Amino acid sequence: MVNSKMDGVPKLHEAFKGHFKIGAAVNPRTLTAQRELLAHHFNSVTAENEMKFERLHPAEAQYTFEHADRLTAFAKDRGMGVRGHTLVWHNQTPDWVFENGDGGAASRQTLLARMKSHINTVVSRYKGSIYAWDVVNEAVSDKNGELLRPSKWRDIAGEDFIAKAFEYAHEADPEARLYYNDYNESVPEKREKIYALVKSLKEQGVPVHGIGLQAHWNLERPSVDDIREAIERYASLGMTLQITELDVSVFLHDDRRTDLTAPEEGMLERQAERYERIFRLFKEYAANIDSVTFWGAADDYTWLDNFPVRGRKNWPLLFDAEHNPKPSFWSVMEITRS
User: Which residue in the list 138, 167, 185, 276 is annotated as catalytic?
Assistant: First the structure.
């Protein structure tokens, strides 16, 4: 009998049973390379890219569901939930969506019809298999004095494209939970914009059920106080919250080094302390948070490699490149005993 490196390691998702789901973003590569790790520690998965518009619908008359179908089958076979990511986003949407047949911009009517057709086709296909959708992703601006970022969705369809997306998704699957998802969600200035947007949607009767906090954080920022204030602010809307893309970079924002081939002394200990504080907070607000998803499962694959600093390796997750638990894993597990 072959011994597994998972033998004797407590399951992360079981440790938080009764609090929230524990998820990981996956792709075709990691579904194979991290299969054992995923099955042992996680009870939810999210497609890193394979459910985005450009991957599912590269041409008007063409849908490519192969990889998304494989992911949902993987999850179903293991009793996992699936978060859908994402239906409407200013990035990773093919040009044809916004164009007419003459090379100019599509009309509002045409663009909304394409949005509705795409959402209906995708959401209906996975109806009953996906418990939550990131319906609109990153529509709020980072600029002072500007609520919504400029985008072809906004510029062509108008600011109500957000409400329309939620309405179309709800029509396609009335049982799915529908989320607005964004980054820098704990930065006070942007927090207030996200709050204002979702409050407005709710007041209009738009079927938005929650807010997704991406949670791409580092060893120092945002502060735990800012995270707490964001959770409380969003929860005051009566919204369910989900942590959707969690990782903790071992590099601070102004650290541009590319010469490390392994974490330097003290990095993993600081990361463990950071994860411990973050998960204590999540556990404290478990009545408001029903899912915590990492943007990846282990350090052998992370989107933070080469981003935002080209040529730089990062180690932002709970498991190392060989899928062994890091100090961060044990610090997170420790809080489940208190």
Answer: 138
